[in-house]
Write a structure and sequence with these properties.
alpha/beta; eight-stranded mixed beta sheet; Rossmann fold; 14% strand; globular; 275 residues; single chain
Length: 275
């Protein structure tokens, strides 16, 4: 635990102190690479890697079996909090996400209250230890609610980013909607990746400050000049082909692509396609 000197919260940025280097940012996420070569979705990591070039920044994410408790990957300082013991049984997060696991795994449901308590405590301790003065919180619930409580006590400003599942999945749950509304009420702003997600946020709190910012891509990597026909050679494709990339999960909408294929084939003759 930090001593009394360490536990003093830092002064918040003022008009006379806007240098980014004075910011001490905590990024909160539950989807994050567990190690350097992990196949977990890395969109939060890619964003955070760019932010870490300009500000003092730490990421707080759930621990997972085989992951380090603290490490630095590509300039990003990562802290992971344990939430169940023994640690090898931590199965609530990663490999598909929390919500799908809560629907299908009894062990995940057992771990949920421990996870919530551990995350809340870890946020509190990290803010005090590293003198955090700004928080970027991915997902409105649950961590957005914990950050809102912290803000009510210490006025540490925070940015919320809603990714979809956190606002679409609990439309009928009164308690969770109230907690989400509280988190949105106290946030400086809430960024969303699309207009539908923004509308889902407004359905929770109509006055929520929203900015639509699409998920970015690395244009140095995904660039027309980097076109390489080798994929067609490797797969022995001679004609046009359609590629869909993503986890084979319901929310990714692959079934709609499959259902649309007959119409696609009608508009483009079958002989022009490779499969």
């Amino acid at each position: 635990m930090p001593d009394r000197a360490e536990a003093r919260l830092p002064a918040q940025p003022t008009d006379s102190n806007r240098n980014l280097k004075n910011l001490r940012v905590l990024v909160l996420a539950t989807t994050f690479p567990r190690w350097q070569t992990d196949t977990e979705p890395r969109f939060v990591f890619d964003l955070t890697k760019q932010l870490a070039k300009n500000v003092n920044l730490w990421v707080l994410a759930p621990h997972a079996p085989g992951a380090e408790m603290e490490e630095k990957i590509e300039g990003v300082k990562i802290l992971r909090f344990p939430y169940f013991f023994p640690k090898r049984f931590e199965t609530l997060c990663y490999e598909g996400g929390i919500l799908p696991k809560l629907k299908t795994q009894w062990l995940a449901r057992l771990q949920l209250p421990f996870f919530l308590a551990a995350q809340c405590l870890a946020i509190w301790r990290t803010v005090l230890k590293y003198k955090i003065n700004f928080i970027h919180c991915h997902w409105v619930i649950p961590q957005g609610f914990f950050v809102a409580l912290l803000n009510s006590l210490f006025k540490i400003p925070y940015l919320l980013t809603a990714h979809g599942g956190d606002v679409y999945s609990f439309k009928k749950n009164f308690l969770i909607r109230r907690c989400s509304g509280y988190a949105l009420k106290r946030a400086k702003t809430c960024t969303v990746n699309s207009q539908p997600t923004g509308q889902a946020v407004r359905d929770i709190r109509s006055s929520a400050p929203i900015q639509i910012i699409s998920m970015g891509v690395d244009t140095r990597r995904f660039h027309p000049e980097n076109f390489n026909p080798k994929i067609k050679e490797d797969l022995n494709i001679q004609n046009e082909f359609l590629l869909a990339v993503g986890r084979f999960a319901e929310k990714k909408g692959f079934r709609y692509l499959i259902q649309a294929m007959p119409e696609i084939l009608k508009k483009s003759p079958r002989q022009n396609w490779s499969s």
